[in-house]
Design a protein that fits this description.
Strands 5-10-7-11 form a 4-stranded mixed sheet. A two-stranded antiparallel sheet has the order 1-2. It has 5 helices and 12 strands. The longest helix is centred in the middle third of the chain and has 11 residues. The chain is an alpha+beta fold. The protein is globular and about 65 Å long.
Amino acid sequence: PKPLMPINEKPLIDYIINPFTERGFKNFLVSINFKSNIIKSYFKDLTKNYRINFIEEKTPLGTIGAISLIKNKVSQNFIITNCDTIYNIDYSKFYNFHLKKGNLLTIAVSGKKIIFPYGVCEIDKKDNLINMEEKPKKNFLVNTGLYLMNKKLIKYFPKNKLLDINNIIEICKEKKIPISTFLINEKSWSDFGSLKNYLNKFSSFDWKNNS
């Protein structure tokens, strides 16, 4: 399972949890489905200074569907993170920003420059070339997979349904629920969700500050 992928002799989930514990967070919920017994066994034998409870998905619920199962297990505001992304941010600032804004959902976003690997052609209605831009660079503001949520939002989650964050964003838009965004530095997060990223990002991420 992804949370146990080894990085510098430690599983990925340690790099996710440890920065929280260093800033005083003590209670964690981990949603499990694929090879859940292996994840449970790892934490059973681990010496830790925090409490962890497992939310078992009987069927896969997507990236955020398990939230429907935790209404009575979380505080008023709680942080959600993916199991395959590491962050090097001040979670206290993130939390305080969320409280100050007063919205039910805050999404951590980051600038991302994408280089398109081909020349992009612009043509007219007669198929004549107007312009060609070689390997254009575009700047986007992207979702990093880190969220702060108020438990009031959980009532809008259908139980045991496959859900991704875009489904919840659509619900918020329909109900006119404002959503905040919290900007983090492009170098302060790293996504290990694909094999290519997993193999390529060891040299670029700041392991010293995520030990």
